[in-house]
Amino acid sequence: MGKRHNIELMVGVFVALGMVALFFLAMQVSNLSLASGSDGYALSARFANVGSLKVRSPVSMAGVRIGRVEAVRFDKTTYEAVVTLRIDAGIDAIPEDTFANIFTSGLLGEQYVGLEPGGSQDYLRDGDDIANTQSALVLEQMIGQFLFQKAGESD
Predict the structure, then answer these.
(1) How many other CB atoms sit within 10 Å of the CB of residue 9?
(2) What is the distance between the alpha carbons of residues 144 and 134, in angstroms, rounded to a whole number?
(3) Which of 19, 41, 91, 118 is least enclosed by beta carbons within 10 angstroms?
(4) CB 25 within 8 A of CB 40
(5) CB count in 10 Å sphere of residue 129
(6) What are phi and psi of 106, to 5 degrees?
């Protein structure tokens, strides 16, 4: 009877560890974490179209994640989307003339903000705005423009 009890206990521990591992895997895949994420500093950027960019989407530079999207809101005065980026505290030398672009990655089409550094000697600080932005490319608009151009050529 004792051997059976030990086997049941081991199976239970194994299943519990598997559930914990699946939980952390799900958190990683969904860009969620248990950390508060309040470290670092905030930058904002204005875009004409953010596509399907969401809160907690990655912010990357040179292919390395350096922060997350903290908020996406609509400015009813300028009719633009204002994106607040939370940059990690260790990344403190982003030039003022940096470009912020919205890119699509992966098979699922997750969108993220990619920063391309400029050459300025002055750096962005907490609360600063990124002036140079490129909006998301919307596939439907690109197809529509292509079809409209082809229809114009056949006339």
Answers:
(1) 10
(2) 20
(3) 19
(4) no
(5) 13
(6) 75, 175
